[in-house]
Amino acid sequence: MEHFTIATVAEKSPDFRRVLWTGEHTQLVVMTIPPGGEIGEEVHEDTDQILTFVSGVGEARVAGETKPVAQGDLVVVPAGTKHNFVNTGPNPLVLYTVYGPPEHADQAVHRTRKEADEREAAGQDEPPTA
């Protein structure tokens, strides 16, 4: 059994992205977006994503709509939908997200967005294949 006190685990992670668990159909990831930072506009063609915000404030930009996000908010991003999440506050924007199917390499840790982008571009962040 995997068990996480997820808000605490997310708050303790200083990394931009950290994969906590990868299954055959889903993946659990925590993220910390620094003040003024963002995930970066993207589309996951075949992957649904559910993001739950633990602390901080920001903007969800999904399918051309923009809404504020804060602690306790949840945003669903269906596969094929353009999205970005931006930290608009003075503190880190901390969240956890579930991808279905997995989107990143199992146990991946990306300390910064730059590192995450570089690994993705180099093909070093591919999800496991069944």
UniProtKB/TrEMBL annotation:
Residues 30-99 form the Cupin type-2 domain. Residues 105-130 are annotated as: Disordered. It holds the Pfam family Cupin_2. InterPro entries: Cupin_2, Flavonoid_dioxygenase-like, RmlC-like_jellyroll, RmlC_Cupin_sf. Residues 105-122 have a biased composition (Basic and acidic residues). This is Cupin domain-containing protein. It comes from Micromonospora echinofusca.
